[in-house]
Structures are given as C-alpha cells and as structure tokens.
Amino acid sequence: MKVIRLSFLGMLAYLRRDMMLFAACLAPILVGFLFRFVIPLFEDVLTDWFHLPTIISPYYGLIDILFAMLSPAMFCFVSAMVTLEENDEKTAKYLFITPLTKLGYFVSRFGIPSIFALLVTVVLLPVFKLSPLSFSYIVLLAAGGTLQGIVIALLILTLSSNKLEGMAVTKLSTLIMFGAAIPFFIKDNAQYVLFPLPSFWIGKAVFESSPLYMFLAVLLLSIWILFLMKNFCKKNRGVY
Amino acid sequence: MIQVKNLSFSYTKQPFISDMSFSVSSGEIFGFLGPSGAGKSTLQKVLIGMLTTYQCSAIVNGVECKERTKNFYENIGVDFEFSTMYEKLTAKENLQFFSSLYEKKPRPIGELLEKVGLEHDADKRVSDYSKGMKARLNFIKALLHDPLLLCLDEPTSGLDPANSRMMKDMILEEKARGKTILLTTHNMQDAAELCDRVAFIVGGKICALDSPHNLIMSKGAATVTYTWMENEEHKASCPLNCLSADEQLKKLIAENRLQSIHSSEPTLNDIFMDITGRTLL
Questions:
Q1: Under a CB-based contact definition with an 8 Å cutoff, are residues B150 and B143 in contact?
Q2: Which chain A residue has the Cα nearest residue B101?
Q3: CB neighbours (10 Å) of residue B274?
Q4: Cβ B84–A94 below 8 Å, yes or no?
Q5: Are the beta carbons of A100 and B76 separated by less than 8 Å?
C-alpha cells in the first residue's frame, strides 16, 4: 500500500508542473461557487426582469447532478491524461517493473483518484447544492458520478493513444454526462431513446425523486465499465 | 541467478521464441546478440516478468517469472534502450521518485549523478537533456536500488566514444560489485569486451552460446597476411598456427624482403555470420 500511496503522491507532484491539469483539479470548487452563489442571483435578476415566478430554479436538481459528476469527471480526466503522458514517455512501462507493479499502477492512477473524487463530492455537494437533496441521495449521486468518471477515463484511454488525441476524446466522452438533462426537458416516452446512457437514469432518479433509478444507473455504469475495460485490455495488450 | 528451460513464447499463433534453454550464474555478464526482431527484447521481457504467457520455465533469482510478486522487482534493475523518465521533472526529482518505490535504501543519488558526469545538471528538467544525457540518466536509474540483476538494453547506444567508455567501465564496476548483468545488444565490440558469455539469437532460437573467446577460437586461428615485391607487389596468407611451415614466409624473412605483415583475428560478427548466415549490423 505504501508504494501505491507514493506513486499517487508522485502523480500529484507531477501535476504541479502541468498547469492545465492542476487547474482541472480545482475546477469543482470554482464551479461550486459559481453554481451556489451566481446562479440563484441570476435567477432573481431574470425572474424580476421577465416577471415570472421561476426560470432556472426548476432545473436546480439537474445542476446538482452535473455538479456531482464534475469532480469525478475532472479527477478521472486528469488521471487519464497523466496515464497517456506516462505511456508517451514510457514511464508507465518502467513503473510496471518496479515493486509498484501494473496493478498497483492502475490503483494509484484510477482507484485512489476515484475514491478521492467520491469523498470530495460527498463533502462539496452539501455545501454547493441548490436543491433539497438528502444525505443518502448525495451519496448515491456521488457514487454514480464516480462510476461515470471511471467510464470517461476508460473512454479516453480506449479511444486515444496519446495526450493530444486524449484531449479531443475528452470533449466527446464528457457528452455522455448530458443524458441527465433529458428527463428534465423531454417528458414523453421519446426520452427512453437515450436509455443506454447511465446519466439519463441519474437524471430520472433526481427528477422523479426515485432512488430505484439510481440503482439502474449504477448497474448500467458497471456494464459500461466492464465493456470498456475489456476493450482497453485488448487494445493495449503489450502497451500497458 | 537465471535458469531458462525449454522456454517458448508467442505473440500470435506463430512461435516467436522456441525451445530456449540456458542458465546465467551470479556475477556473470551474459550477452544476447542478434539482429533486430530476433527475440532478444522479448526474452528480456519474459525474464523481467513483463510477459507471463510463456511455456515451460524461466526462473530468475529463484522465482518463476510468471509467478512474480512485487518483491521480485526489488532485485531487478532495467535500463531500457529508450528514456523512461518524466520529462517535466528534473533528473534529481526523477531519481528521488523512482528510488522511493523500493524498500531498499537507495544508493546516493549525488554520487551516481557524479559518476556519469551529470552532477551539474541534476536540477535541469529531463526535457532539456540531450539523448546521451538521457541514456546516462536512464542507466543510473537502474542502479538506484542496488539490484542483484541488471538488464541493460543497448546501454551504449547514442553515446559518444568517451561516454561509451565511461558506461562500459561502470558496467564492469557493477560486475566487480557482484551483480549479474544481462546485456542485450547488436554491438559486437561491446559484447566481446564486456560479456563473459554470449548467446547468438536468430529467429527466436539460440544458435550458439559460449564465451566470446571460445566462439572466436572455434573459427580457427587468426590469419597472417604478408606482402613483398617481386617485379610487382605480391600478397599471401597463412594461418597463425601454421606460420613455421610457410617456406615462402621464412625465405622472405631471411632475405629481409617483406614489405608488410599483419595478423587478423576473426570478430564476433564474423562468427555470427558463419553460424547464422546473417550479419549483426
């Protein structure tokens, strides 16, 4: 465990030299402040201006979902970028033949950041949430968001072979988060077209206040992770 | 230190390494010589536990490679042909990070940097290093945890003659400290100078295995070539071990008529070509 911790700390030290990735780690706090303090202010201004009772507030639940997904998505994106860079620089290959081993390497690059993202979300979401979410809901959302972060990281690693490609794939893979918006905007059965997206079920769980949908989302996310892991191992046989 | 028995490995359905057997004793420098794609690097990957889907047996330091645990790597140091450093970190930061991954007390970083002439560049980012500097840094990274087995892949590749000499001296110094060294190369001079024994690898098979001296001697003695003038320049050769029977040469020596005389020993490359029908270069 000590060597895994050291490898994780080594990654953090490396991030200090990459301002883009370092900023990505701080994004959840900056965005949290924006969501919590600017959006309600904006809502007040807009409702006064248009003389309407609500404009943005019906979507506060959606904003909370996106915030729950943000920390894991950012942390896993950073881990995926570091992994791609370590693959480019062949340092990953070297780390596999140290006492860290291949398993320890992936635990330090994805396991620890995912757990960290889960904890950060559980801590930050109650501070920055806009809708009345219970603690159990917050934990479920954080868990769903964390699994989705792993899906995003695996998509980046599976579909790209270097950091440059990784940046492009990140933009595409984060789109899967926006399935959460569908239940808020499409009310009829047409919304089920996007049923393979786990974020759709997370959105539905919050929109309909039904935690059962969250379990469906976690099940779907697990299937996505297994499928992507299989492809990642197949594609990178001999690389990682 | 290393026992390999009937080792076979394949990336596809075609065998890539087939039926390889050899052993390496502690404190020995053992060279793998062969052209690109012969299977040298694959064999090294098997021995350092990177490829575990091989058949039969490959035991390193008493551990079957496919059953290695993290402790297996406490006593293995690998110097790949390419740089395996974090480019954005300094040399010192890289060495500190990698040495922290081992249980063993690391060798002094400053001392190792000084040995390869990088002491004044310790705080420079690796991205600012030249190819030769990176090669030297890579080499000392493999020594950090004082491993019993060193696997060196083309350690002198890309080095100028002075640094190449320094690197070879350091390899011999490590041998003197009791390390076992696996040297993968297609540089025959390096192999002849450094290795106690070499294995010629072609097409995933060992074609010959012996000390460089024995392999060279197996081709026969060196040849002596001499020239003399008789209206025009003439040239003749005879094996070194038959020199006393060469009447022509004896006569030329007695008459002081030799224009030139030199001996030429076969090189490892000659032996390699003889045995495999291929060139190392």
A1: yes
A2: A3
A3: 13
A4: yes
A5: no
Which residue is listed with tokens 């450093």? B85
Cα–Cα distance, B8 to B21 (Å, whole number): 10
A:72-101 residues touching chain B, CB 8 A cutoff? 86, 89-91, 93-101
Closest CA to B272 of B193, B220, B224, B219: B219
Determine contact, residues A205/A213, Cβ cutoff 8 Å.
yes
Question: Residue A82 and residue B264: Cα distance in Å, rounded?
Answer: 55
- B73–A7 CB contact, under 8 Å: no
Residue (of B77, B4, B29, B7) closest to B194 by Cα position? B29
pLDDT at B220 over 70: no
CATH second-level architecture of B2-215?
3-Layer(aba) Sandwich (3.40)
| Residue A33: alpha-carbon gap to chain centroid | 18
Shortest Cα distance, chain B CAs vs residue A4, angstroms: 9
B140 touches chain A (CB under 8 A): no
**CB atoms A89 and B103 under 8 Å:** no
Q: Where are the domains positioned within chain B?
A: 2-215, 221-265
- The percentage of chain B sitting over the pLDDT mark of 90, rounded to a whole number, equals 55
Q: What ipTM was reported for this prediction?
A: 0.83
A22 at B interface, C-beta within 8 A: no
Supply the pTM of this predicted model.
Answer: 0.84
For CA atoms B246, B251, B254, B258, the dihedral sign is: negative
Amino acid at A218: V
Number of helices (H), then strands (E), in chain A = 12, 0
The DSSP line for chain B is -EEEEEEEE-SSSS-SEEEEEEEE-TT-EEEEE--TTSSHHHHHHHHTTS----EEEEEETTEEGGG--GGGGGGEEEE-SS--S-TTSBHHHHHHHHHHTSSSPPPPHHHHHHHTT-GGGTTSBGGGS-HHHHHHHHHHHHHTT--SEEEEESTTTT--HHHHHHHHHHHHHHHHTT-EEEEEES-HHHHHHH-SEEEEEETTEEEEEE-HHHHHHHT---EEEEEEEESEEEEEEEEGGGGGG-HHHHHHHHTT-EEEEEEEPPPHHHHHHHHHSS---
DSSP letter at A52 equals -
- Number of neighbouring beta carbons within 10 Å of residue B71: 11
Q: How far is CA A216 from CA A98, A197, A203, A225, in A?
A: 40, 11, 12, 14
Residues across chain B: 281
How far is the C-alpha of A97 from the C-alpha of A216, rounded, in Å?
A: 39
* Residue A131 amino acid letter: S
Per-residue pLDDT reduced to its tens digit, A164-177? 899 999 988 888 99
